[in-house]
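To whoever picks this up:

The parser on our side crashed when reading a file containing two proteins. I've narrowed it down to the boundary between the first structure block and the second sequence. Both blocks are reproduced below exactly, byte for byte. First block:
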Amino acid sequence: MTPARIESHPARGASLIALLAGIWLFISPWWIYGAYGTPGAWNNWFAGVLIFVFAVLRRRHPAATGLSWLNAALGIWVCVSPWVYGYAGSPGRVINSLCVGFIVFCTAVAGANSQKMSHDPTSTV
């Protein structure tokens, strides 16, 4: 892949959104919800860091679709984590987890499928 194609690759945009969602997931337990020190907060910190790292790596290596699929799995995990960690009774935190999980999942699937969406203008297919 040429440097120009890497810069314009659709996975880079999708990964940027996932990267920002990972940052938000990481900071929201203590800056927004005051839930630091709880198992749910630790889960958000860990998942937020992984989402961020996978998104950064995906931006640097657009052909590595496996990183997007890992983020898709993390997006699903973030959606179900309120019930696993017992904070389903906190509507704000549940909505936050559902929204972040949905965003990460959708951007990851879009990024993973970006090879199909991008095309080489020089190809004859």
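<<boundary where parser fails>>
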Amino acid sequence: MDALKHIRLMAQYNQWMNARLYDAAAKLSHEQVTLNRGAFFGSLLGTLNHLVVTDIIWLKRLATHPTGHPSLEPVRRMERPASLDHTLHHELPALSARRNSLDAIISGWTAELSAADLDHVLEYRNMSGIPRHKLFGSLVLHLFNHQTHHRGQATTLLYQAGIDVGVTDLVALIPEDAA
């Protein structure tokens, strides 16, 4: 399988699922969206904020790749969130707008990636400031895997609130002629 095709499929899936989540969440009241339901980040809004926060953190790290990837320029200018539970937006519409912007950036960025980019060893610092050296392609996969993990939690929180998001499987986006 072509790694770049898979990464671009994951970007498409990411954008599709985020749109579904935010459309579903928009059916709830602000009180329901902010209700602490015992998830890792408390509420649905806390979980969705966490996903935006971590996307910004990871994209800022990935933006240090020597190729430069011009589509990540808006992320380079963003302030780095101070913590993984930082609340960027207290209202769903503002968070949704930020999510849409990030998803467009991610799609543009994955279109810029080359196979050679994936083989680069990226040096970055984790949230504690400890230096790490990891394969860029593996970090890109982590970005999408992390999103999938927490979107699973978000769909559970929505279901607990009486909203069924419907089909969430990646297989829904895999073309029939994927050969």
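After patching the parser it read the second block fine. The CA atoms of residues 124 and 130 lie 8 Å apart. The mean pLDDT is 95.
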